[in-house]
Design brief:
Distance between the termini: 103 Å
Largest sheet: 11 strands, antiparallel
Shape: elongated
Number of strands: 32
Length: 456
C-alpha cells in the first residue's frame, strides 16, 4: 500500500511539472522588440494574393497575423529568416474583401494595425498601396524647428516644438542611418530642448528627434565648430535626403567671416530675477512653462554688461506633486523645474544651465535668501526629514518663502512645502540663480536694442 501511494504521488508531481511547463508563458525578454522604420507597404494585391513589405531597426523574423475581422486575426504568414527587410506573401484571399493585419514585432499586442482590400475578381492587380492605419495613435507634428540653438567644439543644444506632448529625445551619430547615441530631457513636452555632450570638434553629426508613437522626423545634420573656435547660435540643420551618400565634411567656405566677439559670464555667477507667472503644485503639470525677468544687469568677466536687465529667463516644470506621499517628506507638495534658456531684449536666445538658489518675497529684504551659513539640517527638520540628513534625492536645502524649502540641483531646482500641503509661489516673487556653466553672449546681441534686432 505504501508503494502505491508513493507511485501515485510521483505521477501527480510529474504531471504537475509538465502542466506548468506547458502553460508557462515565454519570457518577454526572450526576443527584443523590433521597431518598424519603414512601411508596411502592400507591394502587390490581386483578387487572391498579396505581398506585404516593411523594414525594422533590428533583425527579426518576418511574421504577419491577418484575417477578415480586425478583432480576430486567425491566419499567419511568415518567413523565419532573421532580417531587417521583410517580405511576406498572403495567399488564398477572397476578392473584393477587406483584410486586417498586424506585424509581429515582439511587442505584446493582438490588435490589427493596418488594413487593405483585394481587387474584384479578374480585375487588374494593384501595386505599392499604403494600407490604412488602425488602432494607432497619431504621432505629434513638429510645429517649429528643429534648430541647433547652440554648438561648440564638444556639445550642442537642439530645440523644437511639437503639436502634442511627446518625449524630448534625440537620436544621433556620426554616420547617416546609424544613429546609435541618444540624449533626452525628462517628461513629455511640447517645447523640447536637449543637450548633446561629448561630441567631436569639426565633425558632422546626423540626428532625428522623437515625434512620439515610435516615430521620428526626417534625418538632418549639423557640424560642430573647430577646437577652440567660437560657438555658433541658432543654426538651421540640413535635411538628409533618403538614400543620399554620406557627407564626410562640410565644404569649406571660400571666405570665412571673422568670429563675432563674445562676452563670457563665468560659471558661479548669480542672477537675480523676478518670477512672472505664479506656480502651484495644485495646477502645474509636467511640461508647463514659466518665465522670470532678470532684475539686475549681469556682467561678463571683463566688466561689460552681458545680460541686460529685462532679459527673460524661460523655464519648464519637470515634476509636480499635489499632496502625494514621499518616503521622507510625507504628504508635502513639491515642484521641480529647470531653466531652458534666456531671451535678451534684442530677441536673441541662448541656452542656460543654472541652479535655483532661492525663491523669496521681494518685500521681505534678505529673508528667504540662501547664504553660505544656511544649514540643510535646519530646514530638513522643518520639512520632516530625519535629523542630520538635509537631503532628499541628493538635494541640498536652503531657505525660501515662508512654508517652502528649496532643493538646489544642477539645471534647476526643487521646491517643497513645509507648511500646509501644496507649493504656492506667487507671481513677482524674487528668484536667485547660479550659473552651472559659463555663458557666452555675442557683443552685438548684448548691446543691440529690440529695434536694431528687428532691422537685421
Amino acid at each position: 500500500m505504501r508503494r502505491v501511494r508513493t507511485a501515485t504521488m510521483v505521477c501527480v508531481l510529474v504531471w504537475g511539472a509538465l502542466a506548468t511547463a506547458q502553460s508557462a508563458p515565454l519570457s518577454a525578454s526572450a526576443a527584443p522588440v523590433a521597431r518598424v522604420t519603414q512601411g508596411p507597404t502592400v507591394e502587390y494585391a490581386d483578387d487572391q494574393f498579396a505581398v506585404v513589405t516593411w523594414t525594422t531597426d533590428i533583425a527579426s523574423e518576418s511574421r504577419i497575423y491577418y484575417g477578415v475581422s480586425d478583432k480576430n486575426l486567425t491566419q499567419v504568414a511568415e518567413n523565419r529568416s532573421s532580417r531587417t527587410f521583410h517580405r511576406v506573401d498572403l495567399q488564398n484571399l477572397q476578392p473584393s474583401t477587406t483584410y486586417y493585419f498586424r506585424i509581429d514585432t515582439g511587442a505584446p499586442s493582438t490588435l490589427a494595425s493596418n488594413s487593405f482590400q483585394t481587387v474584384a475578381s479578374g480585375a487588374a492587380a494593384e501595386r505599392n498601396l499604403q494600407p490604412a492605419r488602425l488602432n494607432q495613435p497619431v504621432a505629434a507634428t513638429i510645429t517649429k524647428g528643429p534648430s541647433i540653438q547652440y554648438a561648440d567644439d564638444s556639445s550642442a543644444v537642439i530645440t523644437w516644438s511639437t503639436s502634442t506632448p511627446v518625449p524630448s529625445k534625440v537620436y544621433y551619430g556620426t554616420n547617416p542611418g546609424s544613429l546609435n547615441e541618444t540624449a533626452e530631457s525628462p517628461g513629455a513636452n511640447t517645447y523640447h530642448r536637449v543637450h548633446l555632450s561629448g561630441l567631436k570638434s569639426a565633425a558632422t553629426y546626423y540626428f532625428q528627434v522623437d515625434t512620439g508613437q515610435d516615430t521620428r522626423n526626417q534625418e538632418a545634420r549639423f557640424q560642430t565648430v573647430a577646437a577652440g573656435a567660437q560657438p555658433v547660435f541658432d543654426q538651421a540643420p540640413q535635411e538628409v535626403a533618403s538614400g543620399s551618400p554620406q557627407l564626410q565634411s562640410r565644404p569649406a567656405a571660400s571666405a570665412a567671416k571673422p568670429a563675432a566677439a563674445q562676452l563670457s559670464v563665468p560659471a558661479g555667477t548669480e542672477i537675480d530675477a523676478t518670477l512672472q507667472d505664479a506656480l502651484s503644485s495644485k495646477t502645474a503639470k509636467t511640461g508647463d512653462t514659466f518665465t522670470a525677468v532678470v532684475a539686475q544687469p549681469v556682467h561678463a568677466a571683463n566688466g561689460e554688461v552681458a545680460v541686460p536687465a529685462g532679459t527673460v529667463i524661460n523655464g519648464e516644470v519637470t515634476e509636480s506633486e499635489q499632496g502625494k506621499t514621499l518616503p521622507m517628506v510625507r504628504g508635502k507638495g513639491r515642484l521641480a523645474f529647470r531653466f531652458r534658456d534666456i531671451t535678451l531684449p534684442s530677441h536673441q536666445s541662448f541656452p542656460l544651465e543654472a541652479t535655483l538658489l532661492s525663491v523669496h518675497d521681494k518685500k521681505a529684504g534678505s529673508e528667504g535668501e540662501v547664504t553660505s551659513s544656511t544649514r540643510g539640517t535646519t530646514v530638513a527638520k522643518d520639512v520632516g526629514i530625519g535629523a542630520g540628513l538635509g537631503t532628499v534625492a541628493g538635494l541640498i536645502f536652503g531657505s525660501a518663502l515662508k512654508g517652502l524649502a528649496i532643493g538646489a540641483i544642477a539645471g534647476g531646482g526643487y521646491v517643497l512645502a513645509t507648511q500646509g500641503k501644496d507649493v504656492e509661489i506667487p507671481a513677482q516673487s524674487g528668484m536667485k540663480l547660479r550659473l552651472d556653466q559659463s555663458l557666452s553672449i555675442p557683443v552685438n546681441a548684448a548691446h543691440a536694442t529690440p529695434a536694431a534686432a528687428n532691422s537685421q
